[in-house]
Amino acid sequence: MQQHPPLFRTLVEAVVAEIPRGRVMTYGQIAAICGSPAAARIVGGIAHFGNPDLPWQRVVNKHGGVATGYPGGKIGQKNALVSEGIKVTKDFTVDLEELLWNPS
DNA sequence: CGAGTGACCGCAA
DNA sequence: ATTGCGGCCACTC
């Protein structure tokens, strides 16, 4: 019963918060779910200015590669993903065919 | 309110 | 294969 239209940022954070452990999602897919398939960059921006408690490490790009601006760099994100049981290649990429999470 | 920015995406050389 | 450029749209200052 939102009298005001939900902010994009709120939707993105909600989706990211629903990503189960051991799964990943792409920026473009999250943006599309939130209603703006071309706002993939915005998702990244929200990741930087949004709620730091959310599992942003589970968010990867369309190539399955980890983000560049993650705190600690790609190493930090890869470390966080591996800590959750997600296999990350030495090329800092994850297998989207196996780990991509598709919300209902 | 206006301008700049970006943890992206896709294509061209 | 790698590198560079533009577009796209919401967020921050």
What does the model show?
There is one protein chain. This protein has 104 residues and is mainly alpha-helical. Helix 2 (27-33) crosses helix 3 (40-49). It is built from 5 helices and 2 strands. Helix content is 40%, strand content 4%. The protein has helices at residues 8-17, 27-33, 40-49, 73-83, 96-99; strands at residues 25-26, 59-60. A two-stranded parallel sheet has the order 1-2. It has a single domain (8-99), classed as Arc Repressor Mutant, subunit A. The two termini are 21 Å apart. The chain binds a DNA duplex (13 and 13 nucleotides) through residues 7-9, 26-28, 31, 36, 38-49, 56, 59-63, 66-70, 77.
Task: Identify the notable features of this structure and list them briefly.
104 residues; mainly alpha; Arc Repressor Mutant, subunit A; two-stranded parallel sheet; 5 helices; 40% helix; 4% strand; DNA-binding
